[in-house]
Amino acid sequence: MTMITSDPTITLLNDVKPYKTSWKVEVKVLHSWTQHSSYSGGDSLQFILADKTGVKIHCTCKRVFFARVKKLQLGQWRFIENFSLTAAAGKYRPTSHKYKMSILSNSNVTNSTLKDEDNFLSLTSFTEIMNGSLDSNFLIDVIGQPIDIGDIQIVHVQGKETKKLEFTLTDTEDHQIACCLWGQFADHMLYAYKVAQVNKNFLCLLRFAKINVYKGQVQIINAFDSSTIEINPLGFDVQDYLQ
């Protein structure tokens, strides 16, 4: 059933379809990053957007249209009008939406007066991650207390030196899952560990992270720059995770 919004010209993300481009949506920017490319089109901007019902969609913008998305700022609500939709696919899907949004030459981004501080978390339980019931092509949100934090390792990936950090996340029921962070995410985690209080207890929220299987072991990794990491996020108490 289609949910009616207060403005009849605005469509909820669940209801947008590829048959036209003249949609108008009201969305919050949850995350954005630059995707580097050596192809002729050059770099692109990527966004994860959510509407007021919490439905999320991945949005992409080619370099030639960067000026169109200057107003798409992290944490802010905006109207986006005129965009195309194509089937979402791939092994790193940051949302479960069946379509991906693309900015066009006539796309228009304007300010919204909507105020909603919700970050629209969709936390995944450790049990779901470990029992193999999830489609690993979809990125997930997961939170836990990091333990057994190792040292930064330097490994060669596709001819480049890359930082790698392995550790374990525990949840409130003492379930544990292996994690491996790469690049700047490894640095961020190690810094948080070093500046934590003497007892080293802190929480780590990984958003849009990837379920991976390495040497037969299920683990969580960052999905390049699609992922985000937050230490001691608001609304969670590390004491709930201590056994």
Notes on the protein architecture:
InterPro entries: NA-bd_OB-fold, RFA1B/D_OB_1st. This is Replication protein A 70 kDa DNA-binding subunit B/D first OB fold domain-containing protein. Residues 11-111 form the Replication protein A 70 kDa DNA-binding subunit B/D first OB fold domain. It comes from Brassica oleracea var. oleracea. A hairpin with an 8-residue loop joins β1 and β2. It contains 2 helices and 12 strands; from the N terminus they run βββββαββββαβββ. It is mainly β. Strands 1-2-3-5-4 form a 5-stranded mixed β-barrel. Strands 6-8-9-11-10 form a 5-stranded mixed beta barrel. Mean pLDDT is 92; it is low at 1-5. It folds into 2 domains: 13-111, OB fold (Dihydrolipoamide Acetyltransferase, E2P); 126-233, Beta Barrel (OB fold (Dihydrolipoamide Acetyltransferase, E2P)), CATH 2.40.50.140.
State the name of the first-level CATH class of the largest domain: Mainly Beta
Portion of residues in beta strands equals: 35-45%
Span between termini: 44 Å
Can you tell me the CATH architecture of the largest domain? Beta Barrel
Give the CA-based shape: globular
In the predicted model, the low-confidence regions spanning at least 5 consecutive residues are: 1-5
Largest sheet: number of strands, sense, barrel closure: 5 strands, mixed, barrel
List the helices and strands and how they pair.
Elements: E1 24-35, E2 44-50, E3 56-62, E4 77-87, E5 99-111, H1 126-130, E6 140-147, E7 153-157, E8 160-170, E9 176-182, H2 184-195, E10 204-214, E11 217-222, E12 228-231
Parallel strand pairs: 3-5, 9-11
Antiparallel strand pairs: 1-2, 1-4, 2-3, 4-5, 6-8, 6-10, 7-8, 8-9, 10-11, 10-12
